[in-house]
Specification:
single chain; mainly alpha; Non-ribosomal Peptide Synthetase Peptidyl Carrier Protein, Chain A
Length: 121
């Protein structure tokens, strides 16, 4: 994989990020799957997503190394507007793992906060 693919940031085009962030409010598993797959393709454009086994690690299927995983985490953070703690990276080693971990996190992010108070007049 060339260094240019690894160093490309998905938010170089601001409208791309804004479009993906708007999806967070209506996030469902299909949309989340699309976001994860788009991030995987940013890191590994040669990946054949149609052949991807959701339960098998990206490393075993696409030959991801540690730099690729870090780039994937950064792309997911940027696309979803969230922070993924470093300790959770291993839980996101497969498509199934990404969906299981990110689904509830993104759903929580999309819910309105009970602590937000309206401005007084």
């Amino acid at each position: 994989m060339s260094p240019t693919h690894r160093n490309r940031h998905p938010c170089n085009q601001l409208d791309n990020c804004n479009r993906l962030r708007k999806l967070v409010t209506a996030m469902n598993e299909d949309v989340l799957r699309q976001v994860v797959c788009a991030a995987v393709l940013e890191v590994a454009p040669e990946a054949e997503l149609e052949k991807l086994d959701p339960a098998v690690s990206f490393h075993d299927q696409i030959d991801f190394d540690s730099v690729d995983y870090l780039n994937l985490m950064l792309r997911l953070e940027a696309a979803l507007g969230i922070h993924i703690p470093e300790g959770a990276y291993t839980r996101l080693s497969s498509l199934e793992g990404c969906l299981a971990y990110l689904g509830p996190l993104v759903a929580d992010q999309a819910r309105p906060s009970d602590t937000v108070q309206p401005k007084p007049n």
